[in-house]
Amino acid sequence: MTRIPLMAIGEIRGRLGVGETRARVIVKRPGFPEPVWELSTGRVWLADEVEAWIAANRPDVAEPAEGDAGQ
Hints:
The protein is α+β, with helices and mostly antiparallel strands. The protein has a 3-stranded antiparallel sheet. It is built from 3 helices and 3 strands; from the N terminus they run βααββα. It has a single domain (about 5-60), classed as Orthogonal Bundle (Multidrug-efflux Transporter Regulator, Chain: A, Domain 2), CATH 1.10.1660. This is Prophage CP4-57 regulatory protein (AlpA).
């Protein structure tokens, strides 16, 4: 079975080093990737798309920490 690396708001928050409220504002911005699924626990994004957005828009945090980004 193929595993698809996903990120929820908590992982996005951790990658960006921001609080939950700020992360929720960021994911609503034009240009941020669209979530791929909405679950009962919240929305999820493809980790590769989020990482690409971070590299383009937040180069100060572009390198994921070991074990981050859906690993």
